[in-house]
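ok new one. same drill as before - structure tokens go in, u give me an amino acid for every spot. 418 of them this time. try not to just spam alanines like last time pls lmao
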């Protein structure tokens, strides 16, 4: 176990490069299970959650090679579930994406429910309902799901909600079917679009509409090569780090097609920035005003950026409403922010009001989840004095060597082993 120790109050300066998209990596790794041929995935982020995903793949017989630092070559011709690492499946939310391709490939599986961040109730009911519509018999015995593909299901699957991973699992399950399958109430955020692009390279036919995806697979998919896009969430986190600390930094690798509303809200808040290609240069701002931040499915504001917005709101004039209708446990980090001096009114499990501007002071802090932990790093960089953030593992799950990258911007942050 280690912690981050941060001496705050310093302006940041320089440039920081965004790594490959974490949430797009998971479905691509899962899609490699659909073929016996080699799949090559480039620009893979070297983060804890991806490393866990790779360990699970190896445990089920997938040959994983790493010819270059951020390149993986995967071959699933030796697929075998006898020695699957169920303990890792239970710790990793992304492991739910193995359900779809394994059912498509093997016809049946027995796995525990996935784990993940403590951000509220995150059942996989949407996934299971989609599977049943697509011809899967679902049974639960204690902490184990027994899934069997017994028949060709409906050619249309209507999701219960716009779930990114639910959409991906329905796609993955249908990718080996030679019939057309239409998925409605589908999410079309960047992880889904990256998956669809990869599957097209493997031989799947794809059509997309208004929150609707139609795919026509085939029984023998080919291997494919794909370079993962830059991570919009990491880009947004670093942009909001510069905004909150009123620093002049350049963030390299901003995928503006998936951050359009984010960039609009940034401009409306009073941020002073320039966009050239995929590089965003932040300049000093004179005054911040952030009226409302509401998390919504794509093309809305990402729920994974809500916490960083809330930290920036502590430096804005007046009140900011933060509304996250998706997860009732997302606001745990705000208790720590309050201890640092932030003015926060908790309205209900989904809404808070942040008053500002507020002076923040260094404290010893806990890290409850991935995005909340990253937000507390931003707060500590802003704060007067020294802060420590326990359990760096939570942050390492999504941000590769974040302290080393922030150090290059002049941040006084170090990792200390407990």
């Amino acid at each position: 176990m280690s912690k981050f120790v941060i001496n705050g109050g310093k302006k940041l300066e320089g440039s920081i490069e965004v790594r490959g998209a974490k949430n797009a990596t998971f479905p691509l790794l899962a899609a490699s299970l659909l073929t016996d041929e080699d799949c090559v995935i480039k620009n893979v982020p070297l983060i804890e959650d991806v490393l866990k995903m790779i360990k699970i793949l190896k445990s089920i017989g997938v040959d994983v090679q790493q010819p270059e630092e951020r390149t993986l070559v995967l071959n699933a011709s030796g697929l075998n579930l006898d020695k699957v690492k169920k303990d890792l499946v239970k710790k990793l939310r992304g492991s739910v994406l193995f359900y779809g391709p394994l059912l498509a490939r093997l016809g049946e599986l027995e796995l525990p429910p996935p784990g993940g961040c403590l951000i509220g109730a995150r059942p996989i009911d949407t996934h299971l309902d989609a599977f049943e519509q697509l011809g899967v018999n679902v049974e639960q015995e204690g902490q184990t799901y027994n899934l069997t593909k017994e028949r060709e299901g409906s050619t249309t699957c209507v999701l219960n909600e716009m779930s990114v991973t639910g959409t991906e699992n329905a796609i993955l399950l249908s990718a080996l079917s030679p019939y057309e399958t239409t998925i409605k109430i589908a999410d079309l955020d960047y992880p889904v679009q990256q998956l669809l692009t990869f599957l097209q390279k493997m031989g799947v036919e794809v059509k997309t509409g208004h929150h609707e995806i139609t795919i026509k697979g085939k029984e023998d998919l080919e291997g494919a090569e794909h370079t993962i896009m830059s991570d919009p969430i990491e880009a947004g986190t670093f942009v909001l780090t510069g905004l909150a600390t009123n620093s002049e930094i350049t963030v390299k690798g901003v995928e503006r097609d998936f951050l359009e509303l984010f960039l609009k809200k940034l401009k409306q808040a009073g941020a002073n920035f320039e966009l050239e290609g995929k590089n965003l240069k932040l300049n000093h701002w004179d005054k911040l005003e952030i009226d409302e931040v509401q998390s919504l499915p794509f093309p809305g504001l990402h729920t994974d950026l809500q916490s960083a917005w809330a930290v920036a709101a502590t430096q804005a004039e007046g009140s900011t409403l933060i509304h996250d209708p998706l997860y009732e446990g997302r606001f745990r980090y705000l208790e720590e922010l309050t201890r640092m001096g932030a003015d926060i009114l908790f309205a209900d499990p989904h809404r808070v009001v942040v008053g500002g501007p507020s002076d923040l002071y260094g404290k010893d802090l806990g890290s409850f989840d991935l995005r909340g932990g990253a937000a507390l790093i931003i707060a500590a960089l802003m704060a007067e004095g020294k802060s420590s953030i326990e359990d760096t593992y939570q942050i390492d799950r999504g941000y590769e060597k974040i302290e080393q990258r922030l150090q290059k911007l002049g941040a006084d942050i170090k990792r200390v082993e407990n």
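Residues 21 and 185 are 23 Å apart (CA to CA). and btw The chain has a mean pLDDT of 94.
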